[in-house]
Amino acid sequence: MTGDRRPLLYVLLGSALLVTLLLHLVFLPRYLPGDVLLTVLTVGAGWLTYVLVFYGLGRVWPAPDRQSFPNMRFADVGLALLLVSLLLLLALDAVGIPLEGVVGVYALPVAGIYAGLALLGWSVGRRTEAINEMVR
C-alpha cells in the first residue's frame, strides 16, 4: 500500500477489534440467555468484525516472500473448519444437550468456528495484499 493508505488500514484493524470486543463482552452476555433473535444478530455481527480483524492483520503483517502469490489453502481449511464446527454445534443441539448445563462440550466447536473464521480472514487479507502489490 502507499504511505498515505496504510494508516487507514490500522484504523480498520483497531475499530474492528474494538467492535468485536464490545459485541462479545458487552452485548452478547446481555442477550444470550433469553432473546434468540438478538443473540443470533449479535453473534453474526461479532463474527463479521472478527473476520475483519484477521483480514486487517493479514494485510498489515509483512509477508516473508513478496514475489510469490499466496494460495487460498488456509481459506479452504478455515471454511471447512467453520462448517464442520457449525454442524457439530447443530448436532449437539439436535441431540438435546443444553448450552447452560454443559458449556465444556460446546467449547471445542466454538473454538473451531473462531479458528476457521480467523484462517479465512487472514488468507483473504494476504491474498488482497499480494494483489495490491502486483498491481503496483
What's the structural blueprint in terms of helices and strands?
Elements: H1 6-31, H2 36-60, H3 73-95, H4 103-135
Helix pairs in contact: 1-2, 2-4, 3-4
Transmembrane segments: 7-30, 36-57, 77-97, 103-124
Keywords: Membrane, Transmembrane, Transmembrane helix
What's this entry about, in short?
This protein is mainly α and 136 residues long. The chain is 79% helix and 0% strand.
Integer tally of domains? 1
Order of helices and strands: HHHH
Task: Report the uncertain regions.
Answer: none
Rg, Å, rounded: 17 Å
Strand content: under 5%
Mean residue pLDDT: 85
Morphology call: flat
Q: Structural class of the secondary elements?
A: mainly alpha
Q: Output the number of helix runs.
A: 4
Helix content: over 70%
The oligomeric status of these chains comes to: single chain
Largest sheet: none
Number of strands: 0
Calculate the terminal CA-CA distance, rounded to whole Å: 8 Å
Q: Would you give an account of this structure?
A:
There is one protein chain. This protein has four helices and no strands. The protein has helices spanning 6-31, 36-60, 73-95, 103-135. With 136 residues, it is an all-alpha fold. Helix 1 (6-31) runs antiparallel to helix 2. It has one domain (5-135).
Sum up the structure in keywords.
136 residues, single chain, 0% strand, mainly alpha, transmembrane, membrane
